[in-house]
Design a protein that fits this description.
Oligomer: single chain
Number of helices: 2
Helix content: under 10%
Strand content: 35-45%
CATH topology of the largest domain: Chitinase A, domain 3
Shape: elongated
Number of strands: 9
CATH class of the largest domain: Alpha Beta
Structural class: mainly beta
Number of domains: 2
Length: 164
């Protein structure tokens, strides 16, 4: 069976990013803890899925996504200052901390604390991998048709049924 839309794909991968001209290992999915996802429903980066289309169980793969095809170019304007008074009880976050935020429309996102100054907390709203080429290599472990329940819910369920 080869990878097509509406199939459950299980795979391993190693992800490297290009940072200052060097490839740096970022994360892995192993045989013991593989990535399992529903192909073609928007769970993964579109170009990631495009590179996997048509691959069969046991196939090895290696490809690179440009920053644009990954998490976008780094946006200098996505660095902003949050007023200190939005932090309750004067408990300021540490530099490097990830803050869960919500906009006026109820959308959730994260910001990384860059620095703390007298007038506020400087945060970066860019995705941590924005501006980086993404280098993937790995192996297709399993491909199976998604169940009706998985398709209706838009995600993979664990062994024995529905799990979130």
């Amino acid at each position: 069976m080869t990878i097509e839309n509406k199939q459950v794909v299980t795979l391993t991968y190693d992800l490297y990013v290009t940072d200052e001209g060097e490839k740096k290992h970022v994360e892995s999915a192993t045989l013991e803890q593989p990535l399992v996802y529903l192909h073609g429903v928007g769970m993964m980066l579109p170009k990631f899925e495009e590179h996997l289309n048509g691959l069969a169980i046991g196939a090895n793969y290696a490809f690179t996504l440009s920053a644009e095809d990954g998490y976008g170019e780094y946006d200098e304007e996505a660095v902003t200052n949050l007023p200190k008074d939005m932090f309750k009880d004067n408990l300021l976050p540490e530099v490097g901390a990830i803050l869960p935020l919500q906009d006026n429309n109820g959308s959730h996102f994260q910001a990384r604390v860059i620095s703390i100054a007298e007038d506020g907390v400087l945060v970066d709203l860019n995705h941590p991998m924005a501006g980086h080429e993404l280098h993937f290599n790995g192996k297709i472990v399993e491909v199976r048709p998604a169940t009706t329940e998985e398709l209706n819910h838009g995600h993979v369920h664990g062994p024995g049924g529905h799990q979130h």
